[in-house]
Amino acid sequence: MARTASPPPDLSGDGTLAPAPGDAARTETFIPALCVQNHAANLTVLGNGDLACVWFGGTQEGVPDISVQFSRLAQGSGRWSVPDTLSDDPARSEQNPLLFPAPDGTLWLIWTAQISGNQDTAIVRCRRSGDHGHSWGPIETLFGPRPDGGTFMRQPVVVLENGDWLLPIWVCLTTPGRKWVGDEDYSAVKISSDQGRTWSEHAVPESKGCVHMSVLDMKDGSLVAFYRSRWADNIHVSHSTDLGRTWSAPEPTSLPNNNSSIQAVRLANGHIAMVFNESSAADATERRLSLYDDIEDGVEDATPEPMPVEGRRSTFWGVPRAPMTLAISEDGGRNWPHRRNLETGDGYCMTNNSREKINREFSYPTVTQSPDGALHIAYTYYRQAIKYVRVDERWTGASA
């Protein structure tokens, strides 16, 4: 059944932090929101010590009123601010924002902009701030249209040991006559050696279907990347030992994936924290045609094919997006013995519609660590709100 029999939870509030009911080791709140739909949060500790969150908000993903939202938890404050809207393109859906505090003190805001539900039309835009996000410069195009499809990103920029900037992306390939569904997506990294003025692109081999590349600097001369799987089987992993220029082919880990976003962070003690949905296609009872099968298409000559297509692996949409799980690895991501659910539920996601309050997914997590050792986590709650949670890794049973 699409509709839940119990009353929907109250997702409103003024952003004030409070202990979780029955769990004094966990602090949480819903970040104030101005929009019907709120999705795809990214958290960042700013250069002045504030914690910032960006996400996209509007009526529904893929609709042109989707824009970037920005809220701040000022250092020492107990309340998230009412969000500011930082983009407003009437022709494109502006999605997947991230913040990058550059080494020179400039704060970058980077996001995607696509036509309707066609991720193969996506370009990447940016704005910059010199005062920790209190004011912003003009909107610029960072990566424009490409001949083979769209450029998408979700994960933060990594500053490498030689000073280069690495931005994980994936390429949404265009297939003539077919609407984008994700079957041909592959990962790459953009690398800049001149503080973002120019970028080179380096593809990840054999990465078709592996996207949302979450790159961590292991501080031993190597990089590790974790991936979402379009096939909804497992989180995948690959490695680089030459500052991201070349990568091993992604291989499945022991962690499941439901074709929804993940995020990982290397902690100060060398452990890795990851937040993800602990579910896969094995848990699905229904399947969607595509991510955008409930909005009008914006490209007239591209039509979806029936699924699956014989002889070709097909992207799996509709796996429940629950539970939302925090896991800790103490050995570089090989094993994940410490896990605890942040949320549980049925994770119903056969529609993106937030106006009718049918969707019940917990998804698109973001996690970062502040200098005091706390883990800050945010994620989509029912595609209506962004929930913020603060714990430390001992909350999972791990030793800090």
TrEMBL record:
**According to the UniProt record, where is the region Disordered?**
1-23
Q: Which Pfam families match?
A: BNR_2 (PF13088)
Q: Which SUPFAM superfamilies match?
A: Sialidases
The residues covered by the Sialidase domain are 49-377
Query: Compositionally biased, Pro residues: which spans?
Result: 1-10
Which PANTHER family does the entry mention? BNR/ASP-BOX REPEAT FAMILY PROTEIN, BNR_ASP-BOX REPEAT FAMILY PROTEIN
Q: What protein name applies here?
A: Exo-alpha-sialidase
Starting at the broadest rank, the lineage of the source organism is: Bacteria, Pseudomonadati, Pseudomonadota, Alphaproteobacteria, Acetobacterales
